[in-house]
Amino acid sequence: MSKTIELVITHTFNAPRELVFQAFTQAEHLKHWWGPKDWTLNVSKLDVRPGGIFHYSQQSADGHVMWGKFVYREISAPEKMVYTNSFSDEEGNTIRAPFSQTWPLEILNTLTFTEQDGKTTLTMHGMPLSATDEELQTFESMHDNMQKGFAGTFDQLAEYLASKV
To answer: In order of start, what are the domains of the chain with their CATH numbers?
Structure first.
C-alpha cells in the first residue's frame, strides 16, 4: 500500500499526557471539544477497553445529526490507543459516510501520546481498513480536509485543556 494513503497528524498540547489521554477517554472531557466547531456532542456509550465502543452523535446548530463510533482494539493508558472509526446509525450499526458513497467504511486510527517538559505530543495515524481502490483514492483526496478538520478539533482541545491545567 502506498505510504501517502496513510494520514498522519501531529499536535502538541500544553498539558500533561495523563490529562490529554483522559480528554480522549472520558465523556465529561469529550463533550467539551470533540467534533466540528459549534456542534454538540452526545455520548451514547463510552467503554474504553479492547472490544469496547464509543458511540456518539453530533448535532449542528441547525439541527443536523450525525452518528459515529469507535471500536477500541488497544488501550495502553496514557501512551497509546488503537481503534476503528466509522459512521454509524443510532443503533451503532456501521453505515456509509453521509457525504460520500466512496468513503471507506472503517478507518484504523493509532494515537500515541508522548510527554516532554509538561507538554504532550499527540501523533495520529489513520488508514482505511479493507478498502477498495476507489475508497483509498477518496481517503487520500480528502487528506487536506481532514488535516484542517482535525486542526480545528485539536485547537478546541487545546483551549479546553488550558482551562484544566
So the answer is: 3-162 (3.30.530.20)
Reported pTM = 0.94
| Segment 99-132, tens digit of pLDDT | 999 999 999 999 999 999 999 999 999 999 999 9
What the block records as the C-alpha cell of 111 is 494515537
